[in-house]
Write a sequence for this structure.
């Protein structure tokens, strides 16, 4: 069950990242660029969570999976503040 | 351990800020997609808060990942809702276009 | 801010479909004779507006499903096709415009400014539309 949740989160993040990147390439709206980086961070977070907890339970990838999420959401906040007016 | 909690705390705050900004975008654009995204980011904030507060030894911790699941279901629901609205021509539903 | 606001139905119709004066003019013109087909050139000469702008407006309205494009002709012809709540909104809009055109135009200008300000938000929301072709063909 948990595996399915992590996999779903990873797939959703990648989907959002692709859609936002496609939107950025079409419209060149920078908000979409930052948002796609945010979801790239979430994708790394969720993929590594899956690897960490399901595939390699004895390793600790805490920093490798958590820092990308923080960097991602920080870039998104930057975009939301600077590029959305 | 403290460093981990600090990071989770930052993630909680950052997701809350993003949720509030998205809520504001919903108010400006009246597009429900932003409401779904705001709710998803708020749920992720709760997810990080739960990880920071709940002792890793506790079984309860597994339920935190259910919150993450809810967050991503909200994202999917928002995208599905956006695409479902596209097919109709109800002016109140497709105001952003 | 306006002394008496437009009906909610008209406001949402204008926000959703009417991006410019040309959109408004085309919509109000075609709804008077719903069965009839018009080329962009016909509309432009009747409305005394620039054909390029009229054509762009007609295309937008067709993409939004208010007009239908009749393909068998050499030049695209547009026919009014709105139904239900949207059609009722257009009738109310026509009455409002006949009664007080300035109020409608003022609202259009205000929402045009709002639209420019929100273009990044729209790009964000539109990025999540999976089938973009469906949008263009209406």
């Amino acid at each position: 069950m948990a595996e399915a949740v992590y996999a779903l989160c990873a797939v959703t993040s990648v989907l959002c990242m692709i859609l936002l990147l496609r939107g950025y390439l079409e419209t060149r709206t920078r908000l979409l660029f930052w948002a796609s980086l945010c979801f790239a961070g979430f994708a790394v977070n969720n993929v590594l969570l899956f690897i960490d907890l399901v595939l390699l339970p004895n390793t600790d990838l805490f920093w490798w999976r958590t820092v990308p999420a923080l960097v991602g959401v920080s870039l998104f906040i930057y975009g939301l503040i600077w590029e959305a007016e | 351990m403290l460093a981990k909690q600090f990071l989770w705390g930052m993630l909680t705050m950052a997701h809350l800020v993003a949720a509030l900004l998205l809520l504001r975008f919903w108010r400006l654009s009246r597009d429900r997609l932003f409401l779904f995204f705001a709710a998803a980011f708020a749920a992720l904030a709760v997810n990080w808060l739960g990880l920071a507060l709940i002792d890793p030894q506790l079984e309860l911790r597994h339920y935190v990942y259910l919150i993450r699941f809810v967050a991503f279901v909200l994202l999917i629901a928002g995208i599905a809702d956006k695409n479902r609205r596209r097919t109709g021509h109800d002016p109140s539903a497709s105001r952003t276009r | 801010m306006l002394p008496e606001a437009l009906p909610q139905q008209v406001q949402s119709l204008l926000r959703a479909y009417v991006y410019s004066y040309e959109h408004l003019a085309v919509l109000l013109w075609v709804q008077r004779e719903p069965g009839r087909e018009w080329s962009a050139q016909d509309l432009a000469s009747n409305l005394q507006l620039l054909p390029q702008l009229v054509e762009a407006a007609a295309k937008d309205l067709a993409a939004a499903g208010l007009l239908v494009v009749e393909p068998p002709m050499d030049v695209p012809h547009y026919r009014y096709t709105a139904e239900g709540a949207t059609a009722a909104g257009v009738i109310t809009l026509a009455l409002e415009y006949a009664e007080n055109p300035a109020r409608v135009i003022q609202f259009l200008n205000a929402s045009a400014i709002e639209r420019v300000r929100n273009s990044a938000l729209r790009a964000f929301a539109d990025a999540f539309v999976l089938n973009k072709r469906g949008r263009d063909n209406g």
Summary: DSSP finds eight helices and three strands in chain C.
